[in-house]
Amino acid sequence: MTADPFDLARPEVQDRLTAYLERAVPGFRGPARLHRFTNGQSNPTFRLDTDGGSYVLRKQPAGKLLPKAHQIDREYRVLSALGPTPVPVPAALHYCEDASILGTPFYLMGHVAGATFGDMRLPELTPDQRRTVCFRLIETLAALHEVDVAAVGLGDYGRPGGFYERQIAVWTRNYRAAETDRIEGMEALIAWLPANMPKDPERTTLVHGDFRLENCIAAEDGSEIRAVLDWELSTLGEPLADLGYHLMHHYMPADDFGGYVGIDIAALGLPAEAELLDHYARLTGRPAINDWTFHVAFALFRSVGILQGVYARALQGNASSPYALERGRKARLVADVGRRLIEARG
């Protein structure tokens, strides 16, 4: 097997990268000690520690890529645009298109110290701290949706209007392409969503696309959100799609998904969904949030599409995670949650 000439484990590649960053990034001085993050990044991500500070490097993966996948230039663009806004993001420091450095484009951002929590039940925190971090997340999401996209140079970051129509069509196609067995819950969602579109006029804001606790860096006690990460799916769209996705755990069983169904959230200090919706509505100036079932159902539908794709790739032997097969099997469970939700609405 031929050695990868751009493998960051090789000292000569690290030396080339360090020399480049010393020229391109003010204040960067080597040597740099590299550590690769291994949890869930579709784009290879590394921490660089120097005597003068810490940085994070994110690069496009090597090999043939799907169209519109791994667009790290968009990630860097949105980080740069949000820097002056109230939305907490790492500092965007440098973008490099020169493939002679690491084989693919990459960007450098500042490292943000803090905690990353992976379980929305927040077992590490006290009841008061759990309540606080849940409200801080809503405040962060509301701040994102209040950004004036034209003022920060993101007016052309996506297509205005028609967001749900496009998304339903795209994720239905993706699901069909990855389909292995018939999932009745997904069939129900595919039929129900186009027939039950929200009656309120669609708003267009910047949306994250994957806004959840584990994509944020928080203070260790949950008192603040210090940075929102992983902007790969960001675009312009309906902000309630972000909110529905973020609050989807209120509908998921605790045993299979670490959700809130089946546990006493009040005893744990976790706020009820209605409290969080009211908080978001106040922050964004909405008189009410209507058609809520649709927004959550869409989030569940999209999650089934993602999980089914993971499952199909695992069956083909080309999944990126050793847990892909187990995770992908949960597509049916998520679809069942969605079907129960829309059936309860009637």
Could you give a quick summary of the protein structure above?
The chain has 346 residues and is of the alpha+beta class.
Describe how the helices and strands are arranged:
Elements: H1 11-24, E1 33-36, E2 45-50, E3 53-59, H2 72-82, E4 92-96, H3 99-102, E5 106-110, H4 127-145, H5 163-178, H6 184-195, E6 205-207, E7 216-218, E8 225-228, E9 235-237, H7 239-246, H8 254-257, H9 273-284, H10 292-316, H11 324-328, H12 331-345
Antiparallel strand pairs: 1-2, 2-3, 3-5, 4-5, 6-9, 7-8
Helix pairs in contact: 4-9, 5-10, 6-10, 6-12, 7-10, 10-12
How would you name the oligomeric state of the polypeptide chains in this document? single chain
Number of domains: 2
- State the helix count: 12
Radius of gyration: 21 Å
Instruction: Give the topology string: H per helix, E per strand.
Output: HEEEHEHEHHHEEEEHHHHHH
CATH second-level architecture of the largest domain:
Alpha-Beta Complex
Poorly predicted regions: none
Determine the CATH superfamily of the largest domain.
Aminoglycoside phosphotransferase (APH), C-terminal lobe
